[in-house]
Design goal:
With 301 residues, this protein is an alpha+beta fold. The chain has 8 helices and 12 strands. The chain has a 4-stranded mixed sheet. Strands 6-11-10 form a 3-stranded antiparallel sheet, with helices on one face. A 3-stranded antiparallel sheet has the order 7-8-9, covered by helices on one side. β10 and β11 form a beta hairpin. α1 packs across α8 and α2 packs antiparallel against α3. The protein is globular and about 55 Å long.
């Protein structure tokens, strides 16, 4: 199977009636219902894209027919495959994970290693200044990490470094499936000296757990665009004779950007078409436009 890194730009996805209803038919009924409860259209799109990414991966890379795929969630919310007894996945030790935030939904998968992926969009705090935002988040990072963040330069550069650290921590938490109960100050990341770019994936970042370097975990970092940091945690990695823990591992894999047609190329509908599902989504998608028109109309001044 190899390494899989997929991304879908749901922020610029504007599904029409046929695409949205087809997508809704191709996910499990309970997931369709959950997605339908989102208040905002962007959240619904992100969640739908995440489920389609998962099903495409299981279908095409684990060779399980779309209609036989059964995805469940652990008590901590991590997705896993609950395969029927008569299905034997090709890669039973394969681990996969998804994340969606900002304009993207992403999936990472690996054979033989636990995997966690996280994506963060760099955005200015909406209701506070950058120093106040950092003050609120003080307990999420170690003193060393804060020194790195605050020495990054301008407030925008500091925010970029903040979200880079945050994506790394979240990727590890998602890989081990621990959830919100984990004390993030137990983790300390020492970043590669190389700057993140769109051209390559960095894998020199190291994690210290409880103040000791943990060589069993490998981290990949990249930029999907100038505003979106992605981090992938892989482990436990067997100890290697070389001091470079990446020397005997495959080279890091860049994210492949998929289209909606890519997501649904192998899809098979699981339920009947539900026209009301489109009407509900359409209202959510049009709500910001109606609000904007109201605010800009002469009667609202």
């Amino acid at each position: 199977m190899g390494s899989v890194r997929w991304a879908f730009r749901c922020g610029s996805w504007t599904p029409g009636r046929d695409d949205w209803l087809f997508a809704a038919r191709c996910v499990q009924p309970e997931e369709k219902d959950r997605i339908g409860k989102f208040v905002f259209a962007n959240d619904a799109k992100s969640a739908m894209a995440g489920r389609l990414l998962l099903r495409r991966f299981v279908c095409e890379r684990m060779h399980i027919p779309w209609e036989l795929i059964r995805l469940e969630r652990s008590p901590r919310g991590k997705p896993y495959l609950a395969a029927p007894l008569d299905v034997r996945p090709e890669s039973p030790t394969c681990s996969f994970n998804i994340s969606h935030q900002g304009d993207y939904a992403v999936l990472a998968a690996e054979k033989g290693l636990q995997v966690g992926v996280d994506i963060m969009k760099m955005s200015m705090p909406g209701s506070s200044t950058v120093p106040e935002f950092f003050r609120i988040m003080t307990r999420q990072f170690t003193p060393y990490e804060w020194r790195v963040i605050l020495s990054a330069g301008s407030e925008q550069q500091q925010l970029s470094m903040f979200y880079r650290h945050w994506a790394l921590k979240e990727s590890f938490i998602k890989a081990i499936g621990t959830g919100l109960g984990f004390n993030l100050q137990r983790l300390e990341f020492h970043l590669s000296s190389e700057a993140l770019t769109h051209a390559r994936v960095l894998c020199q970042t190291r994690m210290h757990m409880d103040e000791e370097y943990d060589e069993d975990w490998l981290f990949e970092e990249c930029l999907l665009d100038s505003d979106h940091h992605a981090a992938v945690a892989l482990g436990p990695v067997k100890k290697l004779h070389s001091t470079n823990t990446t020397s005997s591992l495959p080279p890091p894999t860049a994210f492949t950007l998929l289209s909606f047609n890519d997501l649904t190329a192998s899809a098979s509908p699981l339920t009947e078409e539900d026209p009301a599902y489109w009407e509900s989504f359409k209202m959510k998608a049009e709500a910001p436009l109606r609000q904007r028109d109201t605010q800009s109309s002469p009667n609202s001044l």
